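=== RUN LOG ===
request id: a7f3
mode: sequence -> structure
chains: 1
length: 123
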Amino acid sequence: QVQLVESGGGLVQAGGSLRLSCAASGRTFGSYAMGWFRQAPGKEREFVAAKTWSGSRLYYGDSVKGRFTISIDNAKNTVFLQMNSLKPEDTAVYYCAAAGGYDLLRADNYDSWGQGTQVTVSA
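=== RESULT ===
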């Protein structure tokens, strides 16, 4: 099991930036990739971004392409999500997750989840 702790959420104005961090501990060698998902009130959990630990595969959700960047510091077992040009529709709870499965766009392929961090973008 991998333990994940997110940080970096908060309140920002539209057009601003935030960087989320996710510190992984435990059996990280058992995970294949790391991903970020988000969930807004009344909506389903949405894929945001994913990257393998090796860096060989990288994906972004259509709504964040060109604005968000996922990166991994392998030495520190930490995953980052740099979010630029934020929009009010980016408001959600953001979750970090560790994937054991191959399809990185599907939430059910992720075995471990963090507690989530709130991101609120004001207009």
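=== NOTES ===
The radius of gyration is 13 Å.
DSSP finds no helices and eleven strands in the chain.
=== END ===
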